[in-house]
Amino acid sequence: MDGLAIFAQGVRKRFGAVEALRGLDLTVREGEIVGLLGPNGSGKTTFIRALAGLVRPEAGKVSVFGRAPGQAVAAGLIGYMTQAAALYGELTVEENLRFFCALQGRRDTERAISEALGTVDLEDRRRAIVSTLSGGMRTRVSLAAALLHEPRLLLLDEPTVGVDPLLRRDFWDHFRALAGRGVTILVSSHVMDEAARCDRLGLIRAGVVIAEGTAAELTARAGASDLESAFVRLAEASA
Amino acid sequence: MSARRVAAVARRIVAQFRRDHRSIGLLVVAPIIVMSLVGALWGTSAQTVARAVVASDRSVAAARVAAMLDATAGVEAREASYAEGLAALRAGTADALLTVGPGGVTVLLEGSDPLRTGGVAASLQGALRELGPSAAVSPRIEYLYGGADFTLLDALAPVVIAFFAFFFIFLLSTVSFLRERSSGTLERLMASPLRRGELVLGYLVGFTFFALVQAAILVSFTVFVLGVSYRGSLVAIFVVEAALVIVSVALGLLVSAFARNELQAIQFIPLVVVPQAFLGGLLVPVDQLPDLLRPIAAVLPLTYATEALRAVMVKGYPLDDPLVLRDLGVIALFGVLTVGGAIASIRREVA
Ligand SMILES: Nc1ncnc2c1ncn2[C@@H]1O[C@H](COP(=O)(O)OP(=O)(O)OP(=O)(O)O)[C@@H](O)[C@H]1O
Ligand SMILES: [Mg+2]
Description:
The complex is a heterodimer. By secondary structure, chain A is of the alpha/beta class. In chain A, 38% of the residues lie in helices and 26% in strands. In chain A, helix 6 (165-180) links the parallel strand 6 and strand 7. Chain A is globular. By secondary structure, chain B is α/β, with parallel strands linked by helices. The longest helix of chain B has 30 residues, at 196-225. Chain B has two domains: 50-143, abc type-2 transporter like fold; 152-350, no CATH class. Chain B has a five-stranded mixed β-sheet, with helices on both faces. Chain B contains 15 helices and five strands. Chain B starts with a helix and ends in a 6-residue tail after the last helix. Chains A and B meet through helix 2 and helix 3 of A and helix 1 and helix 7 of B. The complex binds adenosine-5'-triphosphate and magnesium ion. Adenosine-5'-triphosphate binds at residues 15, 18, 20, 38, 40-46, 83 of chain A.
């Protein structure tokens, strides 16, 4: 399993009557940026949570760097940015980050915080109380918190929702730089131009990956002119 | 178990509440208000006139003692036979029957109404003290009805302190942990190396800190402002307090697993807090409870905290007194059970 960051095979998860994942397969190599594309409720978040050890699949196999998700989490290999910014609103940006830093066991706290804040361009809001920040700023703090401990796998659940275009471009530059250093990134998104920046895409629908490949491959396979119509066609074809 | 992670959780909780001035205020102000009300209540009952009968057939110099007692404020005394006095106590026309023997004074209190009994005992003790050194030997107090525990004027202070520590910390920890669940931060914590035990321990440390600050303020207030006498060591009081708070934090975490929102959490108060108030010694001394309710009191942590606090605060027992140790042991057992339950209630797989 050398070189594999994520290995998922036949993953199934149901919540009561809803079958969120129905035999999902996905493999991600180390250092790749892979986008998860799919409509609302298709199972993106559920799959990401399974990788973070927060959802236990009923069937199938999930491993992260060859380990069970729980072990990978305990070893500090995973950075998870949740879909909604999960932060302590009563605390300052700095206090939030310091707390998450301590949990991850990183020692050079001050440096880690400065770097993470630099990445999301929020140094000037270091001492602001999180609940007073704008929605986009909170998203940025949430990303900073996921980056703090320099994880080898970043799970980003719609990380750029509410982030302005300029900063979004900066984010992607940063993701690229991280990937260059060998960090693996799995990112869910609805935004097509963002999807086009990924090394590879997985189209997910009703809990299964229906197509996989680069943006160009998928567009060509669907015989479409752009990624968006390719996505629609492939989704319809699988229905 | 990583001390650093536990400390991080504890520090975070302190930081969160440090900014929540209203919660901090309530933590301290609400009990002070209640204490003052209680103080006023006891104060007035202390001023109610104690109707005493001096048993002429069993006392020396009954007439003189009765006259002297009658002359002091707050006591109305007359002289009658022991049997007549007893009948008056039963009929509710007298509160106390005194026997002044050569060995000292024995006071038989009517005792059915704790509030009144406390006031009567205090008035009589004050009056006897005024009679001079010979009577200053503390009287032997007996009861026609009821027991011995609740007659001290200040017996209620430790109970109120224990109750408020329990109540507020329970409420705060329930709501904090509920927010942790609903805001998604718990999910974030579970996707980090933090273990469930470390999280619970961090909560315990953080809230115990608040509880001890609260206790320090309350104890100072009751002692210095309300003038409640207290004998035990401060350390002993804090140890009992900390043991109780651990139970209440863990219970709060446990309850938060069964509540979907703050409103539902509030609805647990009647279930968790009210029985403790009624049966744990706050309103009625545990040994005064009807037989039917006593088994329930026996499974409430507050019952033991109340008893232990009363022992160390009012009676001045040391921490290693067998009674205090037994109570602490029982509270510790509750602690182990609730902490275990709290840890089990936090599942890594949130769904
Ligand atoms: N904890 C849960 N309890 C019950 N049902 C759930 C739970 N989590 C997810 N589901 C259901 O599983 C399905 C997949 O949800 P999921 O959140 O994975 O979708 P998603 O692809 O992330 O959607 P979106 O693009 O809206 O974020 C949905 O039908 C959802 O209702
Ligand atoms: Mg989602």
